[in-house]
Amino acid sequence: MKLVAVAKLLPTSDQRAALLATMERFNAACDWLAGAAHAAGCASQYELQRDHYRALRERFGLSSQMAVRALAKVCEVYKRDPAVRPTVRPRGAIPYDRRILSFKADDCASLLTLEGRIVVPFVAGEHHRARLDGARGQADLVLRKGRWYLYVTVDVPAATPRPATEFLGVDLGIVNLATDSDPDSEPYAGAKVEAVRVRILNLRGALQQAGTPSAKRHLKRLAGREAGFRADVNHTISKRIVAKAKDTGRAIALEDLKGIRDRVTVRKSQRARHGGWAFFQLRAFVTYKCQVAGVPLVLVDPRNTSRTCPECGHCDKANRRSQAEFVCKSCGYAAPADYVGARNIARRAAVNRPIVPVVDAGNGDYHPSTSRRLGTSPGL
Q1: Do 152 and 172 have their domain in common?
Q2: Residue range(s) defining the domain that contains residue 85
Q3: Are 174 and 289 within one domain?
Q4: For the chain, is the Cβ count within 10 Å smaller at the N or the C terminus?
């Protein structure tokens, strides 16, 4: 199983200058190559290397392996939407492989620059340090708010999924980010996330309207704060869900919400909140934590899970009296609507066997910051 470990580099002033010059030159080469690829309508790395490898080295002064990395980066981005010419930001990430990056000690990394190799010390938190002890793959060199980071792909052994006959159903939502099927559980409310979103949205609008130099500096500091807070909340929720399932010997059942943004329409006043719903990120976090913990995971069809009575099975749109309230028109059973949905998800998972392998449940195609780290547009 592939995960990402983050290490913060601690370069000297000369090393920072070398890294910055290399990053800007590398991305200038990528942007030029993206234009050539789009003009030729070519997304084949073999053909682009045959036609432009020499120009990359001579025109931009890249080493042989950096030229190869530039070719791979452009092909990866261009294949996403061949109809649009990709543009590469001057300070987008540089992908490093083992030929141009090595770890000399537990706290030093050797990186190739335009001026040759430099050895840069780094620090990492305990969690990420443990990941770095595994098999390391490609890494992205990232400049974020004046600080340098390495996002290192590492191989982490996945635990063998243990057999489970019962399921913990989890209903995903916006008002309540997640609600499980245990009757004594409190839902994971999204009020705090929504409050942060509204506060940052209003503050950003006020700063943009002011337009002063200090306001622009404040806007830079705000960049990514909401996304970081949202990711932290989703990590906390997913950790608690997986821990509960593991401790009780159950598998986890989630809704398969793929394509829901295209199927659902909301009022104009709710669009920002709906657009900021990070349900796929939460599902991906649950998925990889299940892999690490050996907890089986299954995805089920979400249709009518919040309209069907878990007691008598009666399905009716009128059963859902409001966003939060469920009252069965047939037997009178009443409960919070999200809890009803979670119960139906668990019951549906018990019927819809076999269990889907965890890797197929969302983690394999989830790259939350690939486009941001690569510094390209358009992206996923």
Answers
A1: no
A2: 2-156
A3: yes
A4: C
Pick the closest to residue 168 from 75, 249, 281, 55 (CA basis). Answer: 249
Residues 333, 281, single domain; the answer is: yes
Per-position pLDDT tens, the chain of length 380: 888 899 999 999 999 999 999 999 999 999 999 999 999 999 899 999 999 999 999 999 999 999 999 999 999 988 888 888 989 999 999 999 999 999 887 789 999 999 999 999 999 988 888 888 777 889 999 999 899 999 999 888 778 878 888 999 999 888 888 899 998 888 887 777 778 878 888 888 898 889 899 988 888 888 778 788 888 888 999 999 999 999 999 999 998 877 665 555 555 555 555 565 677 888 889 998 998 889 999 988 888 888 899 999 899 989 888 888 999 999 999 998 999 999 999 998 887 654 444 444 444 433 334 444 455 543 32
| In a shared domain, residues 89 and 9 | yes
Whether residue 348 is found in the same domain as residue 298: yes
Helix/strand/coil for 78: helix
Q: Report yes or no on 29 lying in a domain.
A: yes
E strands in the chain: 2-9, 87-88, 94-96, 101-105, 108-113, 116-123, 135-144, 147-155, 167-172, 176-180, 188-189, 251-255, 297-300, 325-327, 334-336, 376-377
Query: How many domains would you assign to the chain?
Result: 2
- 278 and 348 both lie in a single domain: yes
Side by side, the strands of the sheet bearing 101-105 are: 94-96, 135-144, 147-155, 2-9, 116-123, 108-113, 101-105
Q: What is the DSSP string of 270-296?
A: GHHHHHT--HHHHHHHHHHHHHHHT--
